[in-house]
Amino acid sequence: MQTIHSPRGAQTSADFSLASASIEHLLVREFTHRVNNEFTSVIGLAGSIANRSTSHEVKSAIAQLTTVLHCFAEVHRALQMPSHSLEIDASAYVSALCHSLKRARLDPQGIELVLVSRPFKLSSERCWKLGLIISELITNSARHAFGNRGGRIEVLLSASDSSMECCVRDSGSVRRPCRIGHGLKIIDALAQELGGSVSHKFGPEGATSLLRFPVQGEAPFIDASATRTRPAPGDAGATR
User: What whole-number distance in Å separates Cα of residue 134 and Cα of residue 139?
Assistant: First the structure.
């Protein structure tokens, strides 16, 4: 016996999927909004305490704390889910994200961050997922690769007519993890959301993660030469 699904049932299922996705997006945006408000509240509270204190040491310590909070709030804003679907310059987006991550996480540890990229376009949502992957990989390197010494992290972006690649590598000496943690699971899930995959290599000279995913209707544009950027505090990035 052949079973035929009615178009109405299929439409109902599609509508339900769209509604579920919309609710998930709404919840993520609401969560982001609340975190932004909490950052603002904590920064305001710290400033209020500093104003009431008569101790120079207390004021100095709170000023340093406030700077760190501002840096992490900047990272959080850079990783916000986009509110509109449009094509953006992914290279510029990643450059701004790397600048924020460098100020918040890497500068205090003496870790250098270098971005090598060619300008290319991605839809804002796919670019956001790419940013989440890069942020997680940089954070993993900062936490596990260098110990108490400084080091270097490189982010390399490239695009062709059919695919995109993102390579994140560090100069640390971390061994292969004995088990896959939540961070790598999140990275793998985001790579699948992009329709691609990610591979990791670990060795005495550092770790390398390579993300590959296909172009899906985007119109990448490629310059003749790559742009090499070292994001610097107080600047959007020094290019050479």
Answer: 8
CA distance 53 to 50: 5
Single pTM value for the model: 0.74
The CATH architecture of the domain made up of 87-239 is 2-Layer Sandwich (3.30)
Domain boundaries, the chain: 7-76, 87-239
Using alpha carbons, list the distances in angstroms from residue 169 to 50, 119, 136, 143, 153.
40, 20, 12, 14, 6
Instruction: Tell me: pLDDT of 101 over 90.
Output: yes
Backbone angle region of 208, left / alpha / beta, with phi > 0 → left and psi within -120 to 50 → alpha: beta
- Phi, psi dihedrals of residue 227, rounded to the nearest 5°: -105, 125
Cross-strand pairs, 169: 154, 208
Torsions phi, psi of 122, nearest 5? -140, 155
What span, in angstroms and rounded, lies between the C-alpha atoms of 95 and 116?
A: 9
Name the CA dihedral angle for 141, 116, 95, 120, rounded to a multiple of 10 degrees. Answer: -130
